[in-house]
Design brief:
There is one protein chain. The chain is α/β, with parallel strands linked by helices. Helices cover 38% and strands 22% of the residues. Strands 6-7-8-3-9-10 form a 6-stranded mixed β-sheet, sandwiched between helices. The protein has a 6-stranded mixed β-sheet with strand order 16-17-18-13-19-20, sandwiched between helices. It has a 4-stranded antiparallel β-sheet with strand order 2-1-4-5, covered by helices on one side.
Amino acid sequence: MSDLLTVRGVTKAHAGMPVLRGIDLDIRPGEVLGLIGANGAGKSTLMSIISGAYRADSGSMLIEGDPYSPLDKAEARGLGIGIIEQNFQIDGSLTVAQAIYRNTYQAQRPHESLRRQAQWLLNEAGVHISPDARIGHLLRPEMGLVEAVRLLADDAQIVLVDEVAATFNVREIADLHFITSRLTRQGRSVVYISHRLHEVKDITNRIAILREGVIVDIQKSAQTTTERMAEMMFGRVVNRDKRTTTHSSETVLRAKNLRGGTLQGVDFELHRGEVLAFVGPRHSGISDIVGAITGDRPGMFDELEVFGQQRRITRPEDAAALRITYFSEDDIDLGVSKDESIARSLMSGGWGADVDFDDEVAALRDIIGVLGKFQVKAKSILGNVDALSGGDQQKIALARFMSEDCDIMILNEPTRGLDMSSRHDVHKMLSELTESGKSAILLSTDYEDALDWSDRVVVVRDGIVWRNVLSKDCTADQLTLWAREAEKRPRRVWEDDESTALAEELAVEQEAEESALRAQEEELDRQIVARASRAMI
């Protein structure tokens, strides 16, 4: 069987800096091909070339043997290339149904005429989101699932999935994996990018490893290990870090009977120098806990103590005054302007007529030190943040956040989009900060990170604290089992009686259709066996 897509000798440079140095890659029909590499290795640049967003500087591509060189994304889409981009954007005013069909010939149809077929696809994918929900009301991971369902509606034969699952939880990753398997059963091909190596290994048939702009190895997923994958990515052995620092018994934050939103009475404590991780299903109440502490959401406490003093937090300014800082899971809220220079983004002060020479030199030295520590690939510190890879932009935001003067840090998905080596650097910096007396609350859907980085893990379910365990006494598999148990009946997002009735009606129809297909397959099998028996007689 011929390859669906052939890439030969593709090169690309940005601002005179080589990114791709001669890519050779084949994509086979009906396979999931993993693409992994360090931050800045060129993964998204390659996807942009295949999807028509960029033009290659040199090299060639073929689709089923025919020359392929799209002028733009629209032409690529017309030739059978679909993509979920790393920083995808969807019009928030669209309904889920409209978003699913927005790149098809049905894009101009009204919502009412799309909702039934959209619900059919959502049911088929096992995604529990109402077709009537507005995109602007969904969380970022829920938007990512809508984008994945969109691929079922598109006619794309080659689907590029660029780091869309960076903050997906266990349930959402399972939904995404089901969708990719559905696509490949239809004979379509998927290129899957993720920094979660165990996830890539589980979902793919083959894994292409990109290092310094070159494909250095292609491995069969069933015959490799995450350790070998990481070693090929970096050209050296990379080990996971385990938290080894100790914390004091001094309580810096204590919440008693926290209520509001989905919360039904939550108690917890955070100690000086401690990292406390919260994990749980998407709508378990973790967001309400964090929102109450940061002042972004209303919360009622019987008692809220910060450093032994009774306090009230009703707005973000209250949290800031108590030296509580928050690192958002939403890239838009990270406080780093992509139009700003790298140097300006990292400077706590500034430079100019009011800053003396020694201060400017010290600031520049700090900036260069941060770029070196986090291995940010930049041609110049005066270049814009927007010119960096998605992972390197995340590093800049993290470095800026962790340099803030605070006592309590709340980090929401801090390692999203970061490779293993960069995670090591962030973990080391977090350890240094907690050793100096700062405390942290960590929210992560990567359970290995949650355990490796924290002292304790709190599992939240249905608005209550369900488990509170020492990290050293738990495993990622155990957390995964608890998460699945906590979400035995998935919550439908933005459901109402009408959308729930439609989902249940179509589920009955789909089950009847599947039963009829199974009966046909069983009858065909019976006929084949009967013919074989007669032939033997």
